[in-house]
Structure formats: C-alpha cells, structure tokens
Amino acid sequence: MNQETAASVWHRLDGLKEPLMTRVERYAALTIPKVCLPTGFDVMSADQTHDYQSLGAQSVNHVVNKLMTAMFAPSRPFFRVSEGKKTRESAKQAGISETAIGDILANMERQGSQMLDKLAQRPKLYQALRHLVITGNALLILDPGMIRVLGLRYFNVKRTHNGKVHTLVIREEMCFNELDESIQELCGHLHKSEDKVSHYRLIRKDGKRYTMTQWVDEYCLPEQFSAGWSEEKFPYRVLTWDLTDESDYGTGLVEDYAGDFEALSVLSESIVTGGVIGTEFRWVANPNGMTSIEDFRNSVNGDTIPGNAKDVSAISPPVVEGVRIAQTVAQEYVQRISRGFLMGSAVIRDSERVTAEEVRMTAMELESSFGGVYSALAPSIQEPIALWMLDNADLPIAGSDLSVVIVTGLDALSRNGDLENLKLGIATLGGLINVPEPLQQRIRWQELSDFIGQAVGVDLKRFILTDAEMQQLQQQAMAQQAAASTVEAGGVAAAQAAAQPQQQPGM
Fold first, then answer.
1. Other CB atoms closer than 10 Å to residue 499's CB: what's the count?
2. What is the number of other CB atoms lying within 10 angstroms of the CB of residue 135?
3. How far does CA 360 lie from the centroid of its chain?
C-alpha cells in the first residue's frame, strides 16, 4: 500500500474545511478583513476594508486588548512555578526554609516572564488572540527564541473524540529559494530558484507521541528532516476559542454576534446612501412665470434679478425620516455589540504600572461575560507559553518535579494574589483588637488564626507564632531580663563597694 502524501491529506481535509472558510471570510470582512482575506485577494491593488461600519474592528481590538492585559500582564508573571514533594523534602534536608524556596521560584518566574518582551514576542500573542476572536482558530508554533502564528488558511486539522489533535497538516507556499538551505541542497535538482513550491509538514498522533514528516510538493524529505515529541513538549498548538463536541475546528466570538454585525452593516450602508441622496436637490421653475431661468442660472450669490419668488422652488427626495429611523435602529445594534465585546466598561490603562486590582476586575469581567472560555484558554495558551519562556531563559523544568501553575479566572493572576490574601487575613485578625478584653481571654487564638488562614487561602502558620513558640520567647525574654537585672545589681554593688573608704592598716 502506497504511503499517503502530505498533499493528498491536505486536499482531503481542505475540502471538508471549505464551508468554514466561507463563513470566517465573511466574519473577517465585518471586522478586520486582513485576518482572513479571500482566496486570490491582491493586497497590492485592492482595499482591505469592504464594509460601511468600523465598529467590528473597534470591538475586536477592544476585547483582544483586555484579554492580553489579563492573560499576559506586562508588570507581573502570569504563572507560578510550583515545587513538588521531592523538592520540598530535599530542601528541608538541606536546611532551606519554605520562604527561601519561594524566593528562588519567584525569581524563576520573573526571569521567565521577561523573555516575552526581551524576544519581542508579545505582538505575536496579540495576533493569535485576534485570530481566535474572529475565526475561532489559530496555530501557535513555539520555536526556540521565536513564536509563529498561522491563520486558519495555512493548516488543516483532524481531532480525536476527546478533542486532541490526531492529524495536522501545515502548508506554506513560497519560492524555492526561501526554503532552508539544507532542503535546497537536497532538492536543487528538482526545482529552479524562483519556482513556486508547497512546503508541507504532516503531523500525526502515534500513541502518546506526535511524529512529523516534511514534504516539498510530492517529495518526502529524508528522515533527518522528521521529528517527534511527547504531548507535553509538542510545539504545534492548535488553539480554539470555543470547541464544541465532535468538531475539528472552533468557533469565534464574532460568530456569536454575526447577525448583529451584518444588520449593522446593512443599516450603515442605508444611512450613508440616504445621507448622500438627502443632500441632493433640484430647482424647479415655472415656465410661464416672469422669472428668467437664464438670469437665475447666470447669477451669483447676492445678485439682484427680476422675477417672482414663487416661480422657482427647490425639491429634494423625502429620505430624511428614513435615515433617522435607520440611525435609531442601528444604535440598538451598536449597544448590543458593545455589551457583547465589553466596550461599555472602562479600558485598562496601557501602562506598565497596571494595578493588580485592575487586572483582577478585568479577569472577573471576562470570566463572567464569556462563560468560562477565558479560563479554558489558560491550559491551551498560557501554560505552553510559560514553559516556552522558561526554556528560553535557560530555566527548563522538564525532568524535575517542578510544575507550571496558571492562575486565572476570578483569582489573582500572579503571586500578588497571595499577598492580597495575606493582607486580608492579617487585617481580619487585626480587627479582633476591638473585641472586649474578657472575650479575648477566652478565644483560642491558634485555632482562630488557622480558621482565618484557611478561609483566605493562606497558611498563616508560616507567619504567626504558635502558643508554644510564644511562651518560649516570653521565657527567653524573662531570662534575659533577669540576667540583665543580676548584672545591673552586681554592678551597683561593685560601685557601692568602691565608693566606701578603705580602712588604713593598724588603725
């Protein structure tokens, strides 16, 4: 049986994807056309904006900016490095405290987070989120030192019943001299330098691993151009905004509001056309009147001509009322779209000093508005990006019991959340100072602090002395005070003895 070529797999899956491409091209045309231009579109000779309204572009850019700030805040890490049991036991044996371990892990998080800006890859993530909002799909390629984002037109995917990638085909059309030099040397006898070729990467799931073969047109490259990865290290991440059951491709946020966008587009066109028609008018003259049409035509502003005002009148189409109705209806669609894309709330400041409260409020708004889609993006986008950043910072955690934990949703988006919870717990304990003294004496403070710590999600035992430790400190303080008193008493006695006159011998 002959091996199925990457080109044949591509064309088979591409035929199944054709209805989806028709839809997403329309969604892109209503919002940001360049995200998914029609096949054969010439960007050099045609305008990429084809609609009568710009609310689509505004709404997409607005919600993407909110997602970027909430998921990849520029002022703090969006992930934690968590230690496992083995690391904790080893540190305990070495005499390293939990606080010291936390400092080491926090430093790893900071160094890893800096790689996103050092390598200038933040715009790539913005591009990926924009694809997800409009088309519902994007391909993230995590190469060393670089992130690539491909739109839906450049890949086809087939998924398993549980939503994992089963088959992935990537096709990039380019000139032969744009391929890697090693591939050009191998295939130089088949193509000329300026020939257009299709470079395929065919990826299949084989058990718990993914294997890749590369093709140039119908030619399969030798084994040294192949590769394999485990599921955890798989660098090709097929992202979706909302993946329904038994679907190979996801749906985007724009699709949920496609009807409103299309209605607004029609109404906007009517308003523009009606407004233009409403500004046109014609003069009507009485042919039997005393006013000369030639005098009227040849006169300029301010001239005096013989005639009767009733002989000449202006007429215009009665479209003013229709335009007013269209504007009123269009405003209703504007409000609905604005609510759906969170444009009615305040925008997070574009600053490196964005407060944790601003980020947390935005996360809460995204979570409540998108029904869990925001939290679902954490394992698919944030976790592989976090591992990629640690690898590029020369801090790989593969093979250790360290793990990356993405904190998202209604919780804090970084270690700053622990600080806020700690402040809440301490403030709650501090508020008990107003409790009457007789009641304070009857409170079991150790049990109460443990209960408050569990309620706010912070282990207060690390920061508050136990009853036994407090008693020990009091005993030490009393012992030190007693020793100081003894020394002081001895000094006073010595001083008094020195001050007394000494008796002369023989007296």
1. 7
2. 29
3. 13
The phi and psi torsions of 169 (rounded to 5 degrees) equal: -120, 130
Cβ atoms of 393 and 107 closer than 8 Å? no
Instruction: Give the count of beta carbons closer than 10 Å to the beta carbon of residue 377.
Output: 23
CB 305, CB 364: distance < 8 Å: no
- Under DSSP, is residue 168 helix (H, G, I), strand (E, B) or coil? strand
Residue with tokens 């003895």: 497
Owner of token pair 């990638």: 165
Pairwise CA distance, residues 221 & 211, whole Å: 14
C-alpha–C-alpha distance, residues 332 and 128, integer Å: 30
- Contacts of 106 by beta carbon, 8 Å cutoff, 6+ apart: 415
Tell me what percent of the residues of the chain surpass a pLDDT of 90: 35
Angle, in degrees to the nearest 10, between helices 416-430 and 356-369:
100
Contacts of 331 (CB under 8 A, 6+ apart): none
How high is the pLDDT of residue 234?
92
Cβ atoms of residues 13 and 21 within 8 Å: no
Distances (CA, A) of 316 to 144, 284, 298, 309: 66, 11, 22, 18
pLDDT of 167 over the 50 cut? yes
Counting Cα atoms < 13 Å in the Cβ hemisphere of 96 gives 12
Q: Are 401 and 87 in contact (CB under 8 A)?
A: yes
DSSP annotation string for 360-387? HHHHHHHHHHTTTHHHHHIIIIIHHHHH
- DSSP-derived 3-state class of residue 19: helix
User: How many CB atoms lie under 10 A from the CB of residue 160?
Assistant: 11
Which residues, listed in sequence order, are joined to residue 282 by a DSSP beta bridge?
Answer: 315
Do 191 and 264 touch, CB atoms closer than 8 A? no
Alpha carbon dihedral 307, 309, 310, 313, in 10-degree steps, equals: 120
Query: How far is Cα 82 from Cα 187, in angstroms, rounded to an integer?
Result: 47
Least reliable range by pLDDT among 9-13, 68-72, 434-438, 494-498 = 494-498
In DSSP terms, 24 is beta-bridged to none
Greatest pairwise CA separation for the chain in angstroms: 162
Of the candidate ranges 114-118, 175-179, 396-400, the one whose mean pLDDT is the lowest: 396-400
Question: 499-506 — which CB contacts under 8 Å span 24+ positions?
Answer: none
* Local structure of residue 504 (DSSP, 8 states): P
Contact 330, 268 (CB under 8 A): yes
